């Protein structure tokens, strides 16, 4: 049951999640992902069928029980994995086996290059694209200053904390000016305080770049704090069972956790997710 | 140098000093062991006379060749095992028990294959070093986080670019550990081989001096050998530590 005082879900369980008014950045239609069986193991349907539309510049979060296919959804969306059926489009063009230009991904695991300094890490993608060194220096300086790493420009990742390394990975993605930013539980390994502060950084980044952001997370409070809309996924095979519009203003930060509505949004997410989490636990137990 | 480094150095100096005193005061039979100062003098005169230069260079060349071949074959083997999981599963028990086999038993076979020259010794060195290199290469490739491969794909790197710009630098510390072990094993195998199986080289000259009760030459050669191996190992370990420090925290 949804807590009182909140709008009804914008989507009924298992139905398409549309982005509403505004230009569509991402469209998934009838997407499924089935992992083929091997030996005695039967095939596993990890995802779908699933429909999703993201508006340009929207912040969309996905929550769901463990193993429901959240990361599979991100892989399919990024072009890292091909859907078994259905279509994925980014800015009207189909996404197949390649990651489209304009898409950036930040993973949960530390993906910084330990053999490069902070500056060289951030410049890595630009150098591969053949961007002139002067422009690289400008964009890298801006990105590492934006992520609060200016004082560590010549440090190696091993000299940084876990949160700083994640900021470095975000900076490395940020310099490439992605129009779609996919975040796969990027703060999952961080403590609660650092996660809240990192959330502020991501919101600032989102406002400044105007990018469309899709955040995969298992933390309901994180999703409720950051997103314009939160998609709640069912236990495997993952489908959207609810989409909660948070209604937060674009100018926001982690202080919204003190608002009474924040608790209501989180409670609504949990009321949807509780049964699915129990279902997921019983299938994995 | 770190505090631990100074302590280590102090312990070594103390041990040498204690041996010097024990030898000088004849607590140790001087026929069996000579004082370290005489070992050092012996080593210096050996170097200065040039009499042993050919043998020393021969040994170093054999070690370098054994190391180079083991490095190339071990790296290729490690990559192959990483790329072919079935081969890896089949080879696992053999690799796990590899160092239980006394490699020197193959020396006669190598003589038959390569003739009476330096190559059987090089082959012994390769045989001893190659698996350490292969296993460390395999370990390195397996430790590259999936997120790095995915990042490479997100950045649009081709498989070749991914290999050279991401995978190899990411597993470099482990490959380097393999290379360091390959150097050490190549030294052990070649010198031990010379000791019992050859007619020239560092190891042979030590054995020859030993058989002729020529203690200053024997200990001089041993001191030289320890110095060379110790210096190479110290340099490689310092480099290895630096590489591993950079990859710390994963």
What key phrases describe this protein's structure?
heterodimer; A: 285 residues; alpha/beta; six-stranded mixed beta sheet; four-stranded antiparallel beta sheet; 7 helices; 10 strands; 34% helix; globular; disordered N terminus; B: 250 residues; mainly alpha; MetI-like fold; 2 domains; 10 helices; 80% helix
Span from first to last CA of chain B?
26 Å
**What is the C-level CATH assignment of the largest domain in chain B?**
Mainly Alpha
The CATH architecture of the largest domain in chain B comes to Orthogonal Bundle
Sequence of secondary-structure elements of chain B: HHHHHHHHHH
Protein architecture, described:
By secondary structure, chain A is α/β, with parallel strands linked by helices. Chain A has helices at residues 70-78, 118-128, 133-146, 162-174, 192-209, 220-226, 260-284, and strands spanning 24-35, 44-55, 59-63, 85-90, 93-94, 103-106, 180-184, 212-216, 229-233, 240-245. Chain A has a domain at 112-177. Chain A has a six-stranded mixed β-sheet, sandwiched between helices. Chain A has a four-stranded antiparallel β-sheet with strand order 2-1-4-5, with helices on one face. Chain B has 250 residues and is an all-alpha fold. Chain B folds into two domains: 1-33; 38-246, MetI-like (MetI-like fold, Orthogonal Bundle), CATH 1.10.3720. Chain B is built from ten helices and no strands. Chain B has helices at residues 3-24, 36-49, 53-83, 85-96, 107-114, 119-142, 146-154, 159-197, 202-211, 215-246. Chains A and B meet through strand 6 and helix 2 of A and helix 7 and helix 8 of B.
